């Protein structure tokens, strides 16, 4: 328990910045109108693509003989980044389908 408290004490500024960015992100996202959803989703897909590349690099440098932190973080980045990209494209495709003219 002392190690956890020491970790929080050493990195208190970084933890504070991360907490503030979470609240700021929630506030900004809640104010986005529906018209801007598709362009913002494309930007999020690009960012997730960068996360996927970072995950591939991290897994490539990880020691595969043991279950290391690098391997776990790399796999999580790959899984969540891929889910975000696929989900983003599915939502964007569905939104674009709504604007197509229906065939008779």
Descriptive keywords:
2 domains, 104 residues, mainly alpha
Plain-language structure description:
The chain has helices at residues 2-10, 12-30, 37-61, 69-98. The chain contains four helices and no strands. The longest helix is centred in the C-terminal third of the chain and has 30 residues, at 69-98. The mean pLDDT is 83. It is mainly α and 104 residues long. Helix 3 (37-61) runs antiparallel to helix 4. The chain folds into two domains: 1-31; 35-96. The radius of gyration is 19 Å and the shape is flat.
List the topology elements:
Elements: H1 2-10, H2 12-30, H3 37-61, H4 69-98
Helix pairs in contact: 3-4
Rough outline? flat
Cα distance spanning the termini:
67 Å
What number of domains? 2
Give the total of beta strands.
0
Helix content: over 70%
Largest sheet: none
In short:
The protein has 104 residues and is mainly alpha-helical. It contains four helices and no strands.
């Amino acid at each position: 328990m002392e190690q956890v408290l020491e970790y929080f004490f050493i990195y208190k500024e970084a933890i504070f910045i991360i907490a503030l960015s979470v609240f700021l992100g929630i506030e900004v996202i809640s104010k986005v109108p529906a018209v801007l959803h598709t362009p913002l989703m494309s930007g999020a897909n690009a960012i997730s693509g960068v996360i996927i590349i970072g995950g591939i690099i991290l897994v490539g440098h990880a020691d595969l003989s043991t279950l290391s932190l690098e391997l776990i973080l790399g796999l999580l980045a790959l899984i969540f980044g891929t889910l975000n990209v696929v989900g983003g494209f599915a939502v964007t495709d569905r939104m674009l389908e709504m604007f197509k003219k229906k065939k008779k």
